[in-house]
Amino acid sequence: MNLSVLAEQIAHQDAIEWVGLLTGIVYVILAGYEKPLCWFFGIVSCACIAWKSFTDYRLMADVGLQTFYVVIGFIGLWNWMIAKTGEGNKPIVTMVWTRHAIVVVLAFIMSYPLSWLLIHYADARYGYVDTSLTLLSVWATILLVRKDLHNWVYWIVIDVLYTGLYWRSEGYLFALLYVLYAVISVWGWRKWAPKSPKGDFQHSM
């Protein structure tokens, strides 16, 4: 696709997609700054993405994921607000690497039956990739709620892959959103890393 066609596609995106884009960017930036308000913008962004994924792109696993984000957004807001230290923020933690490895393997295994169901009963596109990214995104969001440093590593990889998924689904505005997410996630990692416990994998759940 050339740039002129891309520009035309972006110009015809509707208000819901623009709201999803802008609130999503604010969400990730505020998360990098450890601001509990980030969750409010995340809830709005995910609600918009869920609607468009259902009505336009038929990414059914992503619909479920974005709905999960809306629910966990309220949990994240509550968790970040009440778990403050004397310095004013919930502390950043890390987790042993073996638990990350177990979760990733389980996510790929569970993706097979779940993607089969979505393909055959929900007319889903890119079923296995969509489902794998959904499960990993759920895990990354749980890590973000806990303020685990390594949530940013997951998001960098996930956002790059979602960029390709939305591009192939002709969701060009959301593809650009995930490019920005990936860049901001690199920044988030760099911002959180100096505040994390010494040794990336010293804390367990």
From TrEMBL:
Chief location category: membrane
Segment forming the signal sequence: none
A Pfam family the protein falls into: NMN_transporter
Single GO MF annotation: nicotinamide riboside transmembrane transporter activity
Top-level taxon: Bacteria
Entry GO terms, CC: plasma membrane
Membrane topology: Multi-pass membrane protein
Subcellular location: Cell membrane
InterPro entries (UniProt xref): NMN_transpt_PnuC (IPR006419)
Keywords, alphabetical: Cell membrane, Membrane, Transmembrane, Transmembrane helix, Transport
Membrane-crossing segments per the record: 60-80, 101-119, 125-145, 173-189
Biological role stated in the UniProt entry: Required for nicotinamide riboside transport across the inner membrane.
PANTHER family: NICOTINAMIDE RIBOSIDE TRANSPORTER PNUC
Similarity comment text for this entry: Belongs to the nicotinamide ribonucleoside (NR) uptake permease (TC 4.B.1) family.
Name of the protein this chain belongs to: Nicotinamide riboside transporter PnuC
Annotated organism of origin: Candidatus Opimibacter skivensis
